[in-house]
Amino acid sequence: MSDKSDDDLFWELVEKFIEQANEACEDADPGIVSAALMNAAARFNAFVVAQSSLDKNEFAEDVEGTTNYLSGRYRDFLKEHMEDYRENYTTLIGNRELPEE
Asked: Exposure winner among 14, 26, 39, 44, fewest CB in 10 A?
């Protein structure tokens, strides 16, 4: 078993997924990569919920609540990261200027 904490493993996985997404952007539009990553996360989350259910009935009963929970968590993560980019835009993206007319 690993000596890593769940928190360490979590952030390691986040970094790996971002690295793979960044590599995919070398060959694909970032919007497509973003949509694919979101779809993959949704599919995997549906699998995790289904796999952890005792049976089909329990899964069916959990769909609405779990969908609301996961949607809320995504919204929380997105708001946190959007705020980070808002506060640190120049550091993270650079100083972009509008072209002169």
From this structure: 26
